[in-house]
Amino acid sequence: MHGDLKQRALERASDIAGGVERLSHRLGIDRHALELWLTGRATPPEAVFLRVVDLVLEDDLARAAQDRRKNAVQRTLFGAWCATPQARALKHQNAETAEDDGSGQLGLS
Fold first, then answer.
1. pLDDT (tens digit per residue) in 84-106
2. How many Cα atoms are found within 13 Å in the side-chain-facing hemisphere of 91?
3. Rounded Cα gap, residues 26 and 18, in angstroms
4. Which of the chain's termini has less CB crowding within 10 Å, N or C?
5. In the chain, what are the domain boundaries?
6. CB under 8 Å to 31, separation ≥6 — which residues?
7. What does residue 107 show for φ and ψ, rounded to 5 degrees?
8. How far apart are CA 60 and CA 3, in angstroms?
C-alpha cells in the first residue's frame, strides 16, 4: 500500500514538474534513482518522499486558490447563486433539453 502511494505521488510530482528529468533536477537527485522509484523497483528515502508530498500539496493548494478566485469572479459578475452547484446543474440540464425546432432558434422543451 505504501509503495503504491509513493509511486502515485512521484508520478504526480513528475507531471507537475514537467517530466522525470525536471523532477530529478528539482529534487536534486539522480534520474536513475527516480526512475527506479517510479517503477516500484526501489523505495525513495523518507526525506525525498516528503519533498515530493510538499510539491504535490503546493500544486493542489494553488489550484484550489485559483478555483476559488474563479468562483469569486462568477459571483461578482452573475450573483452568488450562479456559482452554486445547483446553478451549474440547472445550466447543464437546460443545455441538454434545448431543441432545435427548425426555426433557427433554440427553444426549451
1. 666 667 666 766 665 544 555 55
2. 8
3. 10
4. N
5. 2-99
6. 20, 21, 24
7. -125, 165
8. 21
Nine-digit cell string for 7: 509511486
Q: Report residues of the chain scoring pLDDT below 50.
A: 100-101, 107-109
Identity of the amino acid at 91: K
- Cα–Cα distances in angstroms (integers) from residue 79 to residues 2, 19, 74, 83, in the given order: 45, 41, 7, 8
In angstroms, rounded to a whole number, what is the distance separating the alpha carbons of residues 107 and 64? 36
Contact 10, 52 (CB under 8 A): yes
User: Collapsing DSSP states into helix, strand and coil, what is residue 4?
Assistant: helix
Other CB atoms within a 10 A radius of the CB of residue 86 amount to 9
Q: Please report, in angstroms and rounded to a whole number, the separation of the first and last CA atoms in the chain.
A: 51
Predicted model pTM: 0.60
| Location of C-alpha cell 503546493 | 58
**What pairing do the DSSP bridges indicate for beta strands 106-108 and 98-100?**
antiparallel
Radius of gyration of the CA atoms of the chain, in A? 22
Q: Could you count the other beta carbons within 10 Å of the beta carbon of residue 10? A: 25
